Amino acid sequence: KAAVEFLMATSLYHPDTVARSLDHDGSGAEPGLKDPDGRWDLRPHHDRIITVTDETLATWHAVLETPEVRVRRTRMVYAVNRSVEAVLDKLSRSKRIGDLGLQFSSGWHEKNDRTKGYFVSSWGAPNSWDDVILQGPHLFVATPLYKTPNKTMLSNKDWSATDFETLAPDAIPVTAYKPAGDRYAYDCAYTDWGDADNPKPARDYYRVAWRYMAANTGERTLISAILPPGAGHTDGIMSAGSAHSSASDIALLSGFLASLVLDFTVRTAPKSTIRSGTINRLALDLGRSLRSEFVLRALRLNAITQGYRGLWEEAFNPDFLVDSWTTRSHNFHRAELQAVGRTWTDQTPLRYAIDRRQAQVELDAIAALRLGLSADELCTIYRTQFAVLYGYDRNVYFYDANGRLVPNSVLTVWRKKGDAITAEERTATNQAGNTYTYELPFVTLDREADMRQAYAEFERRLAERS
Length: 466
Hints:
The chain is an alpha+beta fold and about 475 residues long.
């Protein structure tokens, strides 16, 4: 067979970019999907042009395909620059989530199973988690109960954001669907991971779950969180778990699925849905390095109500009590990372936006470090592959002196009046019905700098332990 060798470039918005990239000397930062001003990135660069060989196809195959697919039949990876291609090459050598032997559930079919009478449309908070039926908007990255449907239930956009500061410890999510008909039939018809002699209902376990639909160019594509026992979901969500998975393993897996690195892997081959095969092929490291730090951050993001008490208490590690944030540069942090106990309390979850952001940043740094990526590679992924998130970090996500995200209604006035804005103009009621006065100064935070600082601190901790 003749050797494979051809040139490839993706995410091109003008043919002139190709011509100038072929003549480029390779200097300067590699372009991404959008430039720093939020425009489609037309800048030429030598590293936009990738030479595809049999070795390249082998890397793509390891990331995307099962062994049954021939290497030369592998799908194309949309690598916008050579740094991205190098990251994929490293990830292709990692272990896979599929090695865990997880079982999967697509939940209730939103149309057919409702027609069969297993559930009905009915707005409100159920009496218990056993009656919960979740939909895609309930979840965001490492965030259960992210939004709840409004009573009007006009569309899939008619939802309101949760205020975690005031979320009750015993909160159960408001849902648009409720179980109906014979309860035994309802329970039996849902996914079971056992058999007739040894049933293992999927709803009996903590599971990782993600939105089934893939927004390939949105803020995030792989949008996942942990579900507690009892909860069901429609097929707008997929979930995975195992009767043999420990609480610590579920938390570890959720941290990886919430990371920019795995999200990047999903969006390098654009798709409309995220199925079990995609999840099984994602990279994973089950080693002990920084495991306690990783699990603590994942749990404090996910374990937001008493429904997660068992997960927290089973996964608790005394090392949690001597952990700490990797930076003190933000004076607005409201929670000490290590201020937890063996028993779940209403102080266990991170409730303020700035703390939740920092935990996510540190998860990203640990995931990159554990998977063998450099800080430069992590930041290149963020800057070049997550254009919407990058733009939000620079222009939308402003934090006030109390660590709260400032709403757009307040920002609009502040952008006109600056710090002369009055207290009344800094006061707003959020979608959950809570009113806050947002305190100056309003600041954006540099995710790239914070990821680098977190990465360096975790590197230092590893070196100290070796």
